Amino acid sequence: MQDEDIVTGLVLEGRCFTLEELCAACGLEPDWVVRHIEEGLFPAPEGARSEWRFTVVGLTRARRMHAFERDFEAVPELAALVADLLEEMDALRARLRLAGLE
Amino acid sequence: MIRRPDRQPREDARGVMEYRDYYKALGVPREATIDEIKKAYRKLARKYHPDVSKEADAETRMREVNEAYAVLSDAEKRAAYDQLGRGYQPGQEFRPPPGWDAGFEFSGPGYAGAEAADFSDFFAELFGRMGGAQAAGRGGAFHMRGEDHHAKILLDLEDAYTGALRQIALRVPRIDPQGRVALDSRTLNVKIPKGVHEGQIIRLAGQGAPGMGEAKHGDLLLEVQFRPQARYRVAGRDLHVALPVAPWEAALGAVVPVEVPDGRLQVRIPAGAQSGRVLRVRGRGIPGEPPGNLLLEIRVVLPEATTPKAKELYETMARELAFDPRRSS
Q1: Which of A54, A85, B117, B234 is the most exposed place for a label (fewest CB within 10 A)?
Q2: Are the C-beta atoms of residues B193 and B285 closer than 8 Å to each other?
Q3: CATH of the domain at B285
Q4: Residues of B with CB below 8 A from A4's CB?
């Protein structure tokens, strides 16, 4: 251990990421995000590009899709389909937890 | 990024570490073609994918597989690794000779990837200078913000009510004045604010990968997760909990105590409450703007008829009430 610090973080929720922040968080180029939005593979945020805001769920989706394209050389449509299924699985798991079944 | 217990540094003070067999990690022979390596990697990436894997050590194995693939899928790194590792066995003490990489021209993406902090000291020792040397070679004219790193932070539900201080161990790549990248072990005490809940991210500015040149460090993004616990179920800021009540409390109404993460409440049960009915106590879920609600699911629990008195009471009810629970209302 080199040193110890006390750090205070910023809590992010809702539509909290700009395009640039989303890209920095995922190691992506903005063109990747724009292309996937234009092709309907990524939820389109409201407003002009400078006003786009992305959610924590969007961040997870971008990371997943990018990983599938990179690791499996998946075409973007397939990566989006797998991301859709994982999101469905996340929602069902949340319902199971709420029902006390997981 | 966050060091797990199974990833304690294996390097001693003299820079000796354990040799890692990347071919074994991917389950391929040393003469495997790039297509065979790619195929083996994808098979293992599917098996240990964090979203679906049921394997207990999936995270650890995925890191090993990623590290092995980062080396074996890159012709230059693979050639260097093959030359250097000849004759070593997995786990054997290993120290590269000084200047071992003089004959290699590394041109790959270097050692700045977001996963790099998860790689081993062995990897850092062998390939650590690549990204750093490139950055240093640019004479400081090149500036690029460091990448953001991601990790999960497991909290107790009580932390959301009171706030907390949590210690996390990090492995942070550092570029030295010679342009060489090394992994530093570092501990951070993170202040967890009151009101956090799942679905949020805590951003720790400047705690990600170092920037190149004079650019800023990236951030560390901590995904909030609660430890599983039997009593409460959490949805956003709302807290769901079962509330056992006696038949007479449900039938006649009562005020009953309820334990919550930040203390104890007195809750009024309305007369005629049935099992499955949910009572909402506004604002007593996880604190915030607005605070969540406490949702109490009533479960009527019957006393056992194991004593003569209990049997007599049940028999009286059966006789006097003429109650048929199967009759549709």
Answers
A1: A85
A2: no
A3: 2.60.260.20
A4: 187-189
Instruction: Provide the 10 A C-beta neighbour count for residue B169.
Output: 16
Among the listed residues B200, B114, B180, B5, the one whose alpha carbon sits nearest the alpha carbon of residue A9:
B200
Q: Collapsing DSSP states into helix, strand and coil, what is residue B17?
A: strand
> Chain B partners of A64 at a C-beta cutoff of 8 Å?
51
Summarize the confidence of residues B234-243 as an average pLDDT: 94
Backbone angles phi and psi of A54, in degrees to 5: -115, 150
Question: Residue B91, Cβ neighbours under 10 Å: how many?
Answer: 11
Residue B283 within a domain: yes
In this structure, is residue B247 part of a structural domain?
Answer: yes
Secondary structure class of B296 (helix, strand, coil) = strand
Tell me if chain B has a CB within 8 Å of the CB of A53.
no
| pTM recorded for the entire structure | 0.74
Q: Do B201 and A59 touch (CB under 8 A)?
A: yes
Residue B110, pLDDT above cutoff 90: no
Q: Provide the strand spans (E) within chain B.
A: 17-18, 93-94, 149-155, 164-175, 181-192, 201-204, 220-226, 232-235, 238-245, 254-260, 263-269, 278-281, 294-300
Residue B286 lies inside a defined structural domain of this protein = yes
Residue of A43, A57, A53 lying closest to A16 (CA atoms)? A53
* Residue whose structure tokens are 């400078």: A50
Nearest CA in chain B to A100: B233
What ipTM does the predicted assembly reach?
0.84
Closest by CA position to B147, among listed A21, A15, A70 = A21
For chain B, the distance separating the N- and C-terminal CA atoms, rounded to the nearest angstrom, is 59
Q: Would you give the distance in Å from CA B90 to the centre of its chain?
A: 28
Q: Is residue B61 part of a domain?
A: no
Alpha carbon B215 to chain centroid distance?
Answer: 28
Number of domains comprising chain B: 1
Cis peptide bond N-terminal to B290, omega within 30: yes
Token couple for B178: 């010679």
Range of the domain at B259: 232-321
* Mean pLDDT of the residues in chain B: 82
Domains of chain A and CATH, by start: 19-98 (1.10.1660.10)
